[in-house]
Amino acid sequence: GERETMALGGGSWRATWLPTYRRREKGKKERGEGEKENKSERKERNDRRSANGKKQTHVWARCKGSCFDISANDQDNPNVEGNERILVSEVVVRGATPELERVAKEALHTKANFAYTLQEVQEDVNRVFATGYFAQCKPVAEDTRDGVKLTVEVTPNQELRGVVANGANALPQRNVEEAFRDQYGRTLNFTRFGEAIRSLNKWYEDHGVFGQVVDVDMQEGIAQLKLAEAVVGKVNLKFLDGETGEPTKGKTQSKVIMRQIATKPGAIYNIRQAKRDIDAIYSMGLADDVNLLPQPAEDSSVDHPKVDLTINVVERSTGGFSAGGGISAQGGGEGAMPGFVGSCSYSQRNLFGLGQKLTASLELGQADSLFRIHHTDPWVSGDPNRTSRTISIQNNRSSGGAIHGKDADSGDQEDSGGGGNVSVGRLMGGVEYGRPLSTCWSGVAGITWQKTSCSDEHGRTILQDSFGSPLTFSGKASDTTLVALIRAVYGSPTGDSQLVLSMEQAFPLRPEWVNFNRLRARAERTVPLGLMRLALSAKGGAVFGDLPPYEAFAIGGTNTVRGYNEGGVGSAKNYVVCSSELHAPLISPVEGCLFVDYGTDLDSGASILGDPAGMRGKPGRGYGYGAGVRIDSPVGPLRLEYAFKDRGAGRFHFGIGSGF
């Protein structure tokens, strides 16, 4: 016979194929009764198969891979015709435990007393190997009086006793243990082992880490995994011209941008972290465009990959004068519509190239005025906790109509004594420090000094309103307050909920200074309902100690209980306001809204100095409901709403922002 070679992946199959059985020797006993073929038929068959007159044995294949095909030489050999079949009299699996023997036999399609071609036998042996339990599969053919006895000699894989992950800096060890835990103490199965390897590679993909398993070495039942995780080499910053795209000199100091980058040399490269780094640079407000370009480092290799990063930044203009207009909910006095405010300001968002912000602004309105200077350092001296600092000085005057104005809903059209024309002036200065506390929490702590006085429409200082109620707590022309503030803010990663908690404590350094403790809380949640969404909000507060009337919580109006005028429900020492809104898209960017609001002073209105709400006959609790439209704009949602209250006619409300 002629020895043939079968191609097998990276190995080879060696096969001996002779198309005749060995001629029966003389003296052999004839088959007895019950033979399936008579002597003449058997003789004719043997004569045909022994045309070349050679004695033969069969070793069909030795498996060293997972798949094979007949080589070109075999296909040209007439002795290995795909349609020539040999009768298999018996099929035996040797070398396996009873359990693995059962697995191998279930994989075999070759059955006794059927005829098969060489290719069919080779494919069947491949099925045994494909079960994953065997390191080697060797089919051996032996002539018998009834045909060929096929013996599949197998060598089981060794028992998996443990897995060691080498080079796994980002991949948690628990993931390795979980991937292979159910395979320990069992015969190694290539298929399940491969699935575990793919699960580790999927972890890298899901977490944005550039890494994978690159090699596996089995030693005495211990699988040595070799993992390659891309390490960050150099991180370079480049400023580009916005028009030409060519490199240019940046206005911002490099350290100011680089401190925003969490991806440092030597770290494992993570594409998700790289995106967060880009967002962090954008949030500074100094760039029109930011992109990050990873490139293979010069010393990168398959086993030890390394990437160099280049951050390209296109800066924007960060300073200048601006002018505009706005609205004040209290600026219109006691009417439903707000007062309008004009403003001008100078701002510099990149002072000295350090990313610091300096703003001086002036606002003038029908009843309001404000002059403010504030300076913000978003990252104080490179503090590792990313602490920011804001220093502000301001002098503002706003309408006191929400507390001291007459009740516009009572039907009294006469302003007795000009009660609705009280203005509250505040001269303030303070400093606040803020920092992130965790992924979703941030905190603010600060202290503010404030001097407050009240005046009439002519700017003259007054001590009482038209009802004879005192306007200051001290009874003097002004009150002085020193207040410390602590505030914590939670924002969900999805942006559908927010929680704000704050506490203010006044310090009476002098006997006439105000002394109080004020607590506030606000919670918001948005629930999607198909194309619509339901927005829920609740806020409340409580004051303990001294409470000047101008510091009372005003309930009613555009941002609390719609349907009432500003402060129309009451003035409170303690309060709760709840709102529910159902939003539905109309024509982009317009959406419709149905809402209902409720507010109460928790029977605390009378405890305020002079009981301004009780003197004006305000109910202390009430609800409103209505509908409106909202338009998305660069300055925030523009709201136009019409609301009814639980007592009296409805009114229009106009505002900017969510109103929560």
Automatic annotation (TrEMBL):
Compartments where found: Plastid, Chloroplast outer membrane
InterPro entries tied to this protein: Bac_surfAg_D15 (IPR000184), BamA/TamA_POTRA (IPR010827), D15-like (IPR039910), POTRA (IPR034746)
Region annotation Disordered: where it falls in the sequence: 1-57, 379-423
GO cellular component terms, semicolon-separated: chloroplast outer membrane
Ranges where the POTRA domain occurs: 230-316
Stretches with biased composition (Basic and acidic residues): 27-50
Ranges of Polar residues composition bias in the record: 384-399
Entry keyword annotation includes Plastid: yes
Record's keyword terms, sorted: Membrane, Plastid, Plastid outer membrane
Positions in coiled-coil regions: none
Chief place of localization: plastid
Protein name: POTRA domain-containing protein
